[in-house]
Design a protein that fits this description.
Elements lengths: L1 E9 L2 E9 L1 E6 L5 H13 L10 E5 L4 E2 L3 E5 L3 E2 L2 E8 L2 E8 L2 E2 H4 L3 H7 L2 E2 L3 E4 L11 E8 L2 E9 L6 H8 L9 E4 L14 E8 L4 E12 L4
Parallel strand pairs: 1-12, 3-15, 5-11, 6-17
Antiparallel strand pairs: 1-2, 3-4, 7-10, 8-9, 8-15, 9-12, 13-14, 13-16, 16-17
GO molecular function: catalytic activity
InterPro entries: DUF2848, Fumarylacetoacetase_C_sf
Amino acid sequence: MVELNFTLDTAQGVIPLSLPIKQAVIAGWTGRDPIARDKHIAELMAIGIARPAATPIYYRVAAARVTTADRIEVVGGDSSGEAEFVLIAAQGRVMVGVGSDHTDRKVERYGLTVAKQMCEKPMSSQLWDYAELADHWDQIVLRSYATIGGNRVLYQEGRLSGVLPVAEIIAKAFNGSEMPDGCAMFGGTIPVKGGVRPSTRFECELEDPVLKRTLRHGYDVVTLPILG
């Protein structure tokens, strides 16, 4: 378990929160379009990454991997980030943040579950109340920027209409039950522009065009050497 400090931005004001994260789940293959999903599976299989056992699929990682830090350390140069919305269940509600399922891509080729555990999972310290977003969730834009070779480039961009509905993701993860308190779940990602590749900095955001606000988080990636 890890305890993290957040601020919850609601229509009634900003509420400081200290929340225990007791379990962490990484949802994968949550895209709504099955044709696009199967095409991407085939692309990954072509570079040696095994077909997922199910779609969607839910990987468990250590709760301590979830962090609001603005810097992470990784081993070697084969990891990369991917922007995702993050759901946290606590105090009788579901809250929404934005984060990155940072993953070691080399390890991913021999073990997806192991690869998910290799890197920390950075996320925003600011949260929204999902109840305030539910009626326009599909309009929210998920976006990321990566600093590659010293240049900040748009890495991902798309509406959440491309991802399975929140209720369906939760129901499939917990066999029809609600998310348990203290659970943080990364909700899946959207396609990358120009292919998956490492960066020295990764930034992700959720833009709400209806309520005119944006959640952001960014972190630097420090590469540790592989010596044997």
